[in-house]
Fold CBS domain-containing protein.
Amino acid sequence: MATKHEKIIQYIETLPVGDKISVRQIAKDMSVSEGTAYRAIKEAENRRLVSTIERVGTIRIEKKKKENIERLTFAEIVNIVDGQVLGGKSGLHKTLTKFVIGAMKLDDMMRYTDAGSLLIVGNRTNAHAKALEAGAAVLLTGGFEADDEAKALADELDLPIISSSYDTFTVATMINRAIYDQLIKKEILLIEDIVVAIEDTSYLRSTDTVREFNELNSRTTHGGYPVVDKQKKTVGIVTSKDVIGKQEVDSIDRLMTRNPITVTMKTSVATAGHRMIWEGIDLLPVTDDHGLLQGVVSRQDVLKAMQMAQRQPQHGETIDDLVKNEMKLDVDDEDTTVEFTVTPQMTNQFGAISYGAFTTLLVESGAQALKKTKRGDSVVENMTIYFMKPVQMEKTIQVLPKILDMSRKFVKIDFEVYSDEVLVCKALVTFQLLER
């Protein structure tokens, strides 16, 4: 049976896109306290079902599919630029396809402005109505106001007019950065991308016995199953090892591992893989915030997804991508050497290489050394770094990783880092090996 919180989320999902939502109204419609309604609305905001805007309120927006995540809604634009809505509030749920900077003659400006666009412009009042008539929203920079005719037209056409105190360049930079960040998010694999959904998941109930386990195992040949209670809340996990030698009438409740490690739909695949290797488990139940089973992922699913992700082209560059781009690899039969140039983006406030960029460099250099052993993927477990001298901006350094010890699950790599043929750093890193 669904909780009040879940019922409110489900109710919000049924509301038409563009509807305004209030705590008081939700509490009244669902016969719950305002505190419960408020927490559910905040959860809906985290799930991108609604967007809250100062002086406007909370509105229902369309939940984006991953392939469209880089398209921002006008409601999101308002929050990004700290704007206020002057008109056309009912169109805030719509998404923009592109933004146009109005820094040209009116006729030339209109050639680039069409339905779904956002025209970024100052106090050029003659452009406001023209853009709205073309099906575009308007963002006024410099804190300027729109005239009453433009506001009325915006309300009529359900196209927002937004005002921001920032200048045009700053606003364009902020929106561009938001789109760029969305692109990076789009590339990160989450559990929701690979999960075996609840309708396809085999599971047992805590009231079942070893007989039901054996019957399910003969049909699916899976090595383990999540265990749920009457409300489908995950209470344990049971594997073939747990039932070996047990009587068929023995209760699953007595044999299962209680309080299993779980993940949510928004957990990254990399995090799930790390936990599975670290804890030595092959199956992770996927639950919601209240512990209700939503599906499962296996170690095989996770490793396959991570290997596939490494082959995909990148669109938005993270710090890790910038570091990788500066690495030049030199591999011979015995040694691996990585040459690296410190760019200004990778420095701290003192002009030396930042700790984050340097640790990424070590991890990637270690991964290159491990490739020669053909042992697959790895994650860092422990890292110790000793700096003899700071590595300054625009210096070219050489990283020499050397494998000291390797077992089935772990490998220790020693690093020596040179600048101008002088040893500037030593490091020791322990990696966990991600084996199938």
Q: What stands out?
A: The CA atoms of residues 27 and 34 lie 5 Å apart. Residues 192-308 form a domain with the CBS-domain fold (CATH 3.10.580.10).
